[in-house]
Design brief:
mainly beta, seven-stranded mixed beta sheet, five-stranded mixed barrel, 23 strands, 39% strand, binds zinc ion, NA-bd_OB-fold, Replication factor A C-terminal domain-containing protein
């Protein structure tokens, strides 16, 4: 095997653990181990074009740290906002990628291979990859997500492995499933909420109310109620702590509100962080995906094309509240508490809510009692002081 030997060790007592040992002859460079492997793979699935003549033009996003001193990955934004994952097996190149990312520079990449295995088209790069500034690029850099959103997970094939960034909430007590231990929790991101099952050694890797990137978790479907959920995989799942979201998080879909802890405190809205709105479908009431400048929208659920009427516009806001104990907190207000605020101010007969009306209402509200979910910081109820 060209002076390279693989040893796979399975341990009886830790069935979920696989140890893979690699012996290499000092003559074989480390990068060779990977590139050999991948060049074989790509050779069998070659698209016919010699890889050396391919060029990629676009922008570099989300350059990762170096894993195991062997490789790093990033996302490449190409034409038409396409996004490709790229893996580079030359850690010393990371600085070049990170610099182009930080400067948001248009770039051209030469000398890479395309991995067409497993329906991906990842770009694989070695020590000979060339990345250069490419000012002639004729499209703009855009914001791209560093991972899949929970909403889009719902349209992913069951069994597939995905990577999501989400806030972990509502961790259950440990439960037994045969010999194994599991914990249920709810993941939240700005697009949706979703159940997740953490197994065995992953349970102790997380804490409630912290935000993580869940690498390579499995998409599953519940046999009984058909809901999609996520599961830590025996092999390949990695959980890494990451920074919190700055956007408003989705409200958990679960109807079981008893598991949420709520509290009621007197407070006053001191400022508005953001006000947003969305339209719901006239027919099926599902949220419509907004596209700017469209005269009408098509529902992704029932496919009805429709006019945008103020009556189907739903407002929500993120506000800074100062409490009587001098602490302050960012809370999220959806429709119900907003209605309660308008009622307190006798604005029930307001024909249509606008951003200006809402801004005035929020900032003119005297101190009231806020009942909110201590996990999601979503306001459940607003009532006048006793
Ligand atoms: Zn609809």
């Amino acid at each position: 095997m060209n002076g390279v030997e693989l040893t796979i060790i399975k341990c009886m007592y830790l069935p979920h653990l696989t140890i893979i040992g690699v012996y290499r002859s000092p003559k074989v460079p480390v990068t060779q181990l990977f590139m050999d492997d991948f060049s074989k793979q790509t050779a069998t699935h070659s698209t016919g074009a010699p890889s050396s003549s391919q060029e990629f033009v676009g922008y570099i996003h989300n350059v990762s740290a170096v894993y195991n001193e062997k490789f790093f990955q990033c996302q490449l934004q190409g034409r038409d906002e396409s996004v490709t994952r790229a893996v580079c097996f030359s850690p010393s190149k990371r600085k070049i990628f990170a610099d182009f990312q930080d400067k948001k520079s248009p770039i051209k990449i030469k000398r890479f291979k395309v991995d067409t295995n497993a329906n991906t088209s990842d770009l694989l790069m070695g020590h000979d990859v060339i990345v250069e500034h490419y000012p002639e690029l004729d499209f703009q850099r855009s914001q791209i997500q560093s991972s899949t959103t929970l909403l889009s997970v719902k349209s992913v094939r069951v069994g597939q492995h995905i990577t999501v960034k989400a806030k972990l909430t509502n961790m259950s007590k440990q439960q037994k499933a045969g010999d194994l231990t599991l914990v249920n929790c709810i993941l939240l991101d700005p697009t949706a909420s979703m159940k997740m099952v953490l197994w065995e050694n992953f349970i102790n890797q997380v804490e409630n109310n912290r935000t993580y990137i869940f690498h390579n978790v499995t998409v599953r479907k519940d046999k009984y109620n058909e809901t999609i959920y996520l599961n830590t995989a025996k092999y390949g799942t990695e959980i890494r702590l990451t920074e919190d979201f700055t956007e408003i998080l989705a409200v958990p879909l679960t109807q079981d509100t008893t598991q949420f802890v709520s509290t009621t405190v007197e407070g006053e809205i001191m400022g508005i962080v953001s006000i947003n709105s969305y339209f719901s479908c006239f027919k099926c009431k599902k949220k419509l995906e907004q596209s700017t400048g469209a005269a009408y929208l098509e529902c992704k659920n029932c496919h009805m094309k429709q006019k945008l009427k103020p009556a189907s516009q739903h407002w929500y806001a993120q506000v800074m509240v100062q409490f009587s104990d001098e602490k302050s907190l960012e809370l999220t207000l959806f429709e119900e508490p907003i209605k309660q605020i308008l009622a307190i101010q006798n604005q029930k007969s307001q024909p249509t809510l606008t951003r200006d009306i809402l801004t005035n209402s929020l900032l003119n509200l005297p101190a009231v009692n806020f009942t909110y979910n201590t996990t999601t910081k979503v306001v459940l109820k607003i009532a006048q002081k006793e």
